[in-house]
Amino acid sequence: MSRIGEVHRTTKETDLHVRVDLDGRGAASVRTGIGFFDHMLEALARHALLDLTVEGRGDLHVDGHHTVEDTGIALGQALDRALGDRAGIRRYADALVPLDEALVRAVVDVSGRPYLAYDIDIPKWQLLGDYDVFLTPEFFRAVTLNAGLTVHMDLIRGDNPHHIVEAAFKAFARALDGATMPDPRVTGVPSTKGAL
User: pLDDT per residue over 29-44, tens digit each?
Assistant: First the structure.
């Protein structure tokens, strides 16, 4: 069974096409106009072992907020479509990912109940290329709300904003991969309620 989700989202601020294949190999074709953000989406695809296409444009003459948030919305919707009824998956997973001095933990529950607990305090505002580090929680909030995920993310330690943001994307990717992975021992939906 194919686990592919595709979304085309158009607003007055952005025009985005997102395609996700949960059973991919980590291939990515990403163009948002924000270089560092593209790099993070490529890392997400690579470490979640999903194939990801993101083609889009946004009102970058304003700033990157709409592009980053709307990409998160479209990605979350594509993940939700790819997951379908969520039968046969592991549902829960966690990951600890280091990047030099930074260490980030992510825990994912493919619950159908959207919630983000985000405790990653970046010590200083910084642009990474043309990416505002404070857009990171906006992206993850949009993904979790639209994919129906419960996600907890914590910064264990770290002070370099580049390392912290990259470790966050990679930790989320690893936890997402583990939680969405099919498990042959699971029959039906992994819930005593019979639905997620």
Answer: 999 999 999 999 999 9
Domain range 4-180, CATH class: alpha beta
Containing 143, the helix (H) or strand (E) segment is helix 136-147
Cβ contacts of residue 32 below 8 Å, gap of 6+? 16, 38, 41, 54, 56, 57, 58, 67, 68, 71
Say what the pTM is. 0.95
**What does DSSP assign to residue 151?**
E
Question: Given the DSSP bridges, would you call strands 28-31 and 4-10 parallel, antiparallel or unpaired?
Answer: unpaired
∠ CA 179-140-107 to the nearest 5 degrees? 35
Model pLDDT, residue 172: 99
* Residue whose tokens read 């997402």: 176
